[in-house]
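Input chain follows. Return structure tokens only.
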Amino acid sequence: MKNKNSLIAIIVAIILISWANLLDDYGDRYTTDALKQAAVTYGVARSLNAVVSVIQSTEFSVGVASFSPGEALDPLNDLVERFSWIVMMAMASIGLQKLLLIIASSIIFKILLTVTGAMLIYSLLKRDGNIQNVAMRLFVITIFLRFAVGSVVFANDMVEYFFLEENRTQATEQLDKTKDSLSDFSLAFQSNKDEESMWDSVKNKLSGIVSNEEEEEEIKQKTEDASTSIIDLIVVYIAQAIFFPVVFFWMFYKTILRVWVFDWARFISNPNRAKNIELPVVDNING
């Protein structure tokens, strides 16, 4: 009787949580914020790509010496293009999660969960073992459909908050600074070139080689900074949009599967015997 009452209380609590939209509202806020953050990062990446393209098409010269930064910036340009693609995939993944949350929170799934929960409560009160197992499995299916995406989004947000958010913020800020720095470098050179006097030209002929080496080193350093930030962001977005959602979805699925194959009728009637029940169905599925 104690197990039955506890189970009924759990069923009622799950139904109330479903109608309260706790996970749904939380998931909607998370996916909306995540999409905004990804959009900002994508904008920074595309801006950096544009700045790099402008610098690559420019030949920098000081006096009789000149150099083209295209060769040094080629790896960065390729990395930015691939990173932009990864951010787009992350945005698509987050957008899909948001869409699935909207579907799972619809009135259809709430009613379905309520009906299957009521059927399970009725079977518990009637003490019919066969009906209890069938009703429990139907209820488990609806729980999976109703809460799977919300649970995955919640778990993903917790991991991101404690382990990924700081790295993403720092890397995005560093990437933005590098973009601004390269842009200022290009604009400053063009401005100096347009305003260069004859005397400045003579002086630059004498110091051209040294200046070019300094400019090359500056561009290389900025390239390294940008590459490091991009790699950090690639790791963050792959983890956020692909790896952790798949892992948490698999964990939720395995948990639901264990509940599915469990003999609830035996557990309610004799809890001590139910503890020793083997779960061959899970092993067969895994095999």
